[in-house]
# Entry
Amino acid sequence: MIGTTGKRIGAAALALGLGLSLAACSSGDESGDGDKTITLGIIPSWTDGLSTAYLWKNILEEDGYTVEITEINDAAPLYTGLAEGDIDIFPSAWPEVTHAAYMDEYGDDLEDLGTYYDGAKLTMAVPEYSELQSIEDLIGKSADYDGKIVGIEAGAGLTKATQEQVIPEYGLDADGWTLQTSSTPAMLNALDEAVQAEEDIVVTLWRPFWANNTFPVRDLEDPKGALGEAEGLHELATAGFSEEFPEVAEMIGKAKLDDEQYGSLEDQVVNEHEGDPAAGVEAWLADNQDWVDSLKS
# Structure
């Protein structure tokens, strides 16, 4: 773990993409006769995708593929690029709950390669010193927080769930609460500043995410279940990918990360090797070669 919170946040802010850089992606084959380029699409401030993308880049390039990582600033264009074939794989999608609306729109043009992590969850969180215990406790407290819940990107599934489910179901709008959308790095900076000053703040978060371990935060209870149930993290591909790259699809489908494996991977990528995710993955693989071997058995 590195020594300053600012450096940790810097990793989350790593090079936010400004749009699609369209590459020749799904034109390859596995026979060695054609292009073997595979393009992974990520929102780099969402560190589950950042970590898994560089993990697959390392593994696949060892097997002779060329892997390009396209950074995009929001979920909507990422799903569009995936559906249109400009991106081959979204390595850490939340299709069951968080991204369900995108699946409704683009699902027919996508292929689910598998679930690599179970139990992902959307949350609202406060510092541990906060008196708040439940989302219900926000009622009557909007003036103490300037009526502001600090959120992330406008196109995020978490943002949609907060705006369309949490706020109306708990009556927070009538109490003067609004969701402030910004970006993941901006939310983390606001959280860092509040924690350093021991000030109150309410933020939208999710699990798994390194910030839950880095900052002294706890989830607010959600007795109405407005943020949805726990879900799996999936590797989604453009339709037809498994026919074009059957060995890659099979290997990705075998991938499973438990809490300890996922936590150590993200810690290496985000914290220990801030700004150099490839180095973080190399460090993690040095201690987890058996995990890679299991994909190829």
